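Homework help thread (please don't just give me the answer)

Our assignment gives two proteins as sequence + structure token strings and asks us to describe the second one. The first is just a warm-up. Here they are:
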Amino acid sequence: MAEMFGRYVPDETFIHKLDPRVKAIISFLMTAMVFMARGIISMVLIFVFVIFITWLSRLSLKLFLQRMRYVLFILCFSSVMNIFYSKGRILWEFGIFKITEGALIGSATMLMNNVILTLINLVFLISTLPSDVAYVVKFFLYFLKIFKININEIALVITLVMRFTPVVFEETERIMIAQKSRGAKLNSGGIFKRIRLLFPILNLILILCFKRAAELALAMECRCYGYTENRTHMKKLKLKNTDFLALFVVFLLFSGIILCRMRKVF
């Protein structure tokens, strides 16, 4: 349970060292390319490039399966269900169920698109610190200051969610293991019995969350958070040559996908 989908993994890879703003722009461009690509060759090119980025981030297959096991199940299930709801040349028929050629192609394309999008977000999240993600949010939402919106609070909420959600999941896992060691049969019986056995654990989790929230509020108050309008940052982000190189390569691929779409090739 502690192996969450987008939990940060510390490392010194090329992807980890990129500026978080550059990684956010690359993720946005890659997402746009997935939706713009129409031909199978374009999709394969994007898929190979995403696999290359994943390799640069040193995302192992074991970690990939741990983080995406539930996501992959949902993606595969939705793709399989999509097979029976499409028109075209019938390849197999049994009663009301029909599998068509268009359905197979559409399901395979949808599965590839979803896997690519999930991989893009996964690589971004495991290679970017929560504090850097907050910095990216502030950078791209800076225009909201025109409307008197406090973007610091938005960035703070995102940071707290990314930092403390894994902590809550870890504490939940510890509590469940402790209850099982005391003889609690949390995985036995009917569904209503299991729900009833989870209520004491939910109470402990709520108490833990309120306790951590109080400690966090006290720590922020001791550090005078909110007493100044403009916050300072200990680490100043600056673009390096590697950041420009990464942007150039992605923009080159993005331009190629646009050109292929305009000329209706690939």
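The one we have to describe:
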Amino acid sequence: MKKILLMAVAAVMAISASAQETIKKVRVYKDGAVAYEEKYDAVDSIVFVDVEIPAVPEGALAGKFTINADGDQIQFSQGNLQATNNGGTWTWSFAEHQYDYIGNAAANTSINGNGTVSANGTVDLFGWSTAATTYGIHNRTSSSTYSGDFIDWGTNAISNGGNEANLWRTLTKDEWYYIFYTRTNAATLFGLGSVNGVNGTILLPDNWTLPAGATFEASTAHGLAVQDGYYYNENGDNFSHNTYTAEQWSAMEAAGAVFLPAAGDREGSNVYFVGSIGDYWSATPYGADYAYDLGFYSSGLDPRTYDRYGGFSVRLVR
């Protein structure tokens, strides 16, 4: 936690000459600009207080990532998005660890309709979310079923992410691209590897400092290079570039590192490629039947398009 003291360079108050000391307006300046303004009929006093602000929002990781040329930054959630069904009610949460995933298990394999499952459990592979589906919790393999505008998973209250609606959102295609291709030193701030025995992609924040005793190798130092607009490695050994135990990863995570596990893909009620492919949805459509995602595997990494019915991972940001 860090303390932020609400301060003003100058506070200007229009005060009447009457005995009632009626204050019409309070205007607070900071660095020569109006930082706050409010109208009042009357006040007794003005008090400056210390306000406790969490250094890192609940459910977020510490690292900050620039997502556009304007310099806007985001923080990733602590783990992949999960929806748990209990008697027909869905609750939303983030995985406890970054390397956690459900894979080929209930409820990923027991989805039997729009927002319904044949067995209680947790879903973490979602079709593209639209009003026509329950946030992509559907077993139909026709993209037309997922027609319409995108409905962000972040509109839900995340139980271990502040537990309020609309705190989180999904990255756009351009924002995923900026992180991996465009931000300063982008090519050296990611690498593929494994964490706690789980294959995936490691992302480092803008202002990265390697923890004492830790190691990291950018995959671009091991043959991964941009070819025809996306990263490709003809050696096909991306997941061997970095290896961490759970304990070693704790130090990396505390320094702001993000890990996206290769959680596989779902088609209908079948899950494939667990441990060998990771696909993460963006908020950006591509025509009526497709949408963009970030995909990675042993020989490549690229933003690409896929049928909206694809059951992919979701990692929210704020």
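TA reply:
I won't write it for you, but here's a hint about the kind of observation we're looking for: The first strand starts at residue 2 and ends at 5.
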